[in-house]
Amino acid sequence: MRLRLFCSLTVFFVFYQINAQSYSGVKAPFINESFEAFKTGESLKFRIHYGFFNASYATLNLEDVIIDDKKVFKATAVGRTTGIARWFFKVDDIYETFFDKDLVRPIKSTRNIYEGGYTKNVEINYDYSRNLANINDIKNSLLSSVKIEKNVQDLISTFYFLRNHFDVKKLKQNDFIRINIFFDAENYPFRMKFLGYEDVKTKFGTINCLKFRPYIESGRVFGDSESLTLWVSNDKNKLPVKIEAGLRIGSIEADLEEFRGLKHPFKIKLNLK
Question: Which of 11, 92, 116, 271 is deepest in the core (most CB within 10 A)?
Fold first, then answer.
């Protein structure tokens, strides 16, 4: 379970589920409700590797669709293992999230995955009037409802929520961002600690980044609760640039490989020898 959760968090950015409020319901001081960090047509691709060994690629694409006569965003995340890794552990994952353009919260999400023989095909519709997630387990023909936390996000919508509502100017080193995630029919409270600023060398050049430490429970895969580190571009796009997770043996990394359709210029400094 924790391995699948990590893969989802890593492949899809990391794509961390950040709630706009702390657990006490008091709005965090670094939340900005009026910024726009992305636009329709944005496309991102990430390379996930273990050292020099490419394990998989993940893409994230954003488009407009109509739901109940209202234009909303549809984000599609696709992850699959490649090459030799596919022989040992085949992964074909498709996540879709439909979210409100103004509030940036999930309306509906789908998850159709194959991970080394483990499969799941689920559709979730969110009812905020009753704080319920209505789950349709298509694979097993089961319907259920689960209570959700206030202002909850799913794996994909949080990525966009954070980028739109995150005021860097108000964030101080060692501040915590509180997280409420709804994943796999459960509510997960996470925390992410802001560690400061750091330049990261990439294939595009050097990118000044915000550095975070998500706190995740120890398990069979992670060595301890501080094994995951995330770097996000320190510009108006707030793109995940790099993720690194320490394992029992070595570490796995996800790097930004391609991007297009960004709303704002991407601040990159050339790598000069």
Answer: 11
